[in-house]
Design brief:
Number of helices: 8
Bound molecules: FE2/S2 (inorganic) cluster
Strand content: 5-15%
Shape: elongated
Radius of gyration: 19 Å
Order of helices and strands: HHHHHEHHEEEEH
Length: 175
């Protein structure tokens, strides 16, 4: 009886609209597309983000249950990967490549300047919702490292300090 009550309470909690961006059916569809394979947690999270624009916090319990993972694990994975986010993206998205070739070309030294000029850290969105700053893991522009991508449209290579200033000004300009 106690167990039944507990289960019902948990089910009601799962289905409660605590997170208005969460849609149980949409997450279920993503899980089915991946065969509810716990080994595919990362691509599942990316597909959830592709659907909602972010990983809704309300989806964590559903994902954990379906995949036999703990909620802490789901939180840990989303928190670890800078390209996954809990909140909706800003109006513009600036992706700075931090993969091997761009690191060798000095992107790490540019990160503090980018963060200062944009007004938030990698993996965050500015308070005014204007720009989301994300890390990317190779943009296919290794020959022009360090590289960045604005709004999945504008690629910029061989970034240096002045290039960063121009890029951030473009990201900050209203379209
Ligand atoms: S490593 Fe940065 S573009 Fe390939």
């Amino acid at each position: 009886m106690e167990t039944g009550h507990r289960r019902r309470r948990e089910r009601e909690h799962d289905e409660s609209p605590l997170d208005p961006t969460y849609d149980h059916a949409a997450v279920a569809a993503v899980l089915e597309a991946h065969g509810r394979d716990a080994g595919r947690l990362l691509p599942i999270l990316h597909d959830v983000q592709a659907h909602f624009g972010h990983v809704p916090r309300g989806s964590v319990r559903q994902l954990a249950r379906a995949l036999g993972r703990s909620r802490a694990e789901i939180h840990g994975v989303v928190g670890f990967y800078l390209d996954l986010r809990w909140e909706p993206a800003g109006r513009r998205t600036l992706r700075l490549c931090v993969a091997e070739s761009c690191q060798a070309a000095g992107v790490r030294a540019l990160v503090p300047l980018v963060e200062e000029l944009v007004g938030c850290r990698l993996g965050e969105t500015t308070l005014d919702g204007a720009v989301t700053l994300e890390a990317a893991y190779c943009l296919g522009l290794c020959a022009c490292s360090p590289a960045a991508l604005l709004d999945d449209e504008t690629v910029v290579g061989r970034l240096d300090e002045s290039g960063v200033r121009e890029l951030v000004a473009a990201a900050r300009a209203e379209q």
